Amino acid sequence: MSPYVSYAVIIFILCSLVYAQVYRASSTTKRINLSSSNEIRNLLDPPTPLAEQLTARATSNARLMRAFSIHSTFVHGDIDTHTTFTKAAVELISRHRLPWTLFADIASNVVDAHLHRLSSVAFDTFISRITLHVVIVGLLQLEPSFYKIDPDDLDVVAGNINRLWTMSKTTTEIPSHMLAEVNVRLHRWLPTYSNPIEFVIPVYETLWRVIAVTVALNHNRSDVRAVFAAFLSQPDSRRYHYIPDGDPSVEVVMQEVLRLYPPTRRISRTYTASDFNLKYLPSFLAQCMTRTITQVADIEALQRDSVWGVDVNDYDPMRHLPQRCGEAQRRTLLAFGAGKLTCVAKTWAPHAAAVIVATILDRVGDGDKTEFEVVAGGGIGGRSGWDGWRIQRVGRGEEIVG
Ligand code: HEM
Questions:
Q1: pTM for this model (two decimals)
Q2: Pairing relation of β-strands 29-34 and 291-298?
Q3: Residue 117 lies in a domain
Q4: Which chain positions lie within coiled-coil regions (predicted)?
Q5: pLDDT tens string for the chain (402 positions)?
Q6: Residue 244 and residue 305: Cα distance in Å, rounded?
Q7: How many structural domains compose the chain?
Q8: Is any atom of ligand 1 closer than 6 Å to the C-beta of 293?
Q9: Residue 401 lies in a domain
């Protein structure tokens, strides 16, 4: 090779390296927000192999692995983990294992066990306590002794999961004792699971917030209370879908809660990409010229799209009845994701949440007819933001200790 050619090659490599560094420094990570139905569906249901989709999800969920030490399909890109985990999750909620009447009995026993000693408690503490307890007993398949789990232990687990989730977004320095406090209790309650939090999180973490919002929005609505009362006496699919004359069905109430307050507000995918054709570059150079892109599907924004009309931000279950909800509206409803990674519990979870809501409404907040009342606070909360909201015994104000 002539010296001129060698110089040219060296200069080309040096320039490329300098350019690559500048390119990376200016654009190593990029975050793109998507809020239209087409963009979001393209992101969640792309024509790419399952393994690639799993990797894109796992990469964007890496923070959950750090915060919760989980190794489930949410944080791992391999297909075997996905198959095993989703199969186990489907089995857990199968109707043969957990018929609705049994699930309603569990909810009923749990709610009564907690109300029995209660005088007054923060609303979010009560709902997360109940939900976690129902999930634990449901997963355990009806061990009567588990109706006696100490509420303080449930509060530690629920509170720490909540705090760890929030911290996973804001810091990498998470104190290890918080997860240890959760795991020691979960292992005691779910001894057959090697890492029980892997199952507790997807089942419990979304469910409790759906239940909280549904109770908060409906505790003082007599039409909704009546349909939930009828549903509680027969908590099967027929009653769930049944549309009473002029009143909302249980199904449309749950759909509207999930539309306005989706527990998974955003779903992300992270992958590497480049603006250049890297085929002919040496791999070390190609690597420098790629960057990480996170695309974020803004489910909450899509579900509040203007196709729902001017009152899009109002809570109105009746908007889901067939005469008001066409294809354009339905296409915006993505609380359970879309495509190959759609939630395996998209049918089960709203029904299960409704059973727990019906049980709570049966005991709480109906004027003179119930012993307990809901004290409403400010706005509707999520993981936090329930200031002022309480559940209390009618005419009392302090929690009974001991
Ligand atoms: C209202 C409650 C729930 C909501 C809103 C919800 C939401 C979601 C969403 C949005 C996804 C897709 C995530 C993605 O694309 O990255 C998902 C996946 C999943 N969910 Fe749920 N979920 C709920 C309850 C549950 C329950 C109770 C279970 C337990 C059986 C569960 C198990 C799963 C599993 C295993 C996946 C992964 C599916 C796959 O990778 O193929 N979810 N969920």
A1: 0.91
A2: parallel
A3: yes
A4: none
A5: 677 778 877 777 776 666 666 655 555 678 999 999 999 999 999 999 999 999 999 999 999 999 999 999 999 999 999 999 999 999 999 987 889 999 999 999 999 999 998 999 999 999 999 999 999 998 876 677 778 899 999 999 999 999 999 999 888 888 989 999 999 999 999 999 999 999 999 999 999 999 999 999 999 999 999 999 999 999 999 999 999 988 999 999 999 999 999 999 999 999 987 766 666 666 666 666 678 999 999 999 999 999 999 999 999 999 999 999 999 999 999 999 999 999 999 999 999 999 999 999 999 987 778 899 999 999 999 999 999 999 999 986 554 443
A6: 28
A7: 1
A8: no
A9: no
1 occurs within a structural domain: no
Q: Which of 343, 344, 346, 355 to mutate to test the pocket of ligand 1 (most atoms within 8 A of CB)?
A: 343
- Cα separation, 332 vs 259, in Å, equals 9
Residue 60, ligand 1, Cβ within 6 A: no
Is 10 contained in some domain?
A: no
Q: What is the CATH number of the domain that holds 266?
A: 1.10.630.10
Cα–Cα distance between 140 and 149 in angstroms, integer? 13
Residue 281 in tokens: 């570059």
Q: Ligand 1 mean position to 212 CA, how many Å?
A: 18
Partnered with residue 393 across adjacent β-strands are 372
Contact 336, 89 (CB under 8 A): no
What is the domain extent for residue 156?
Answer: 33-393
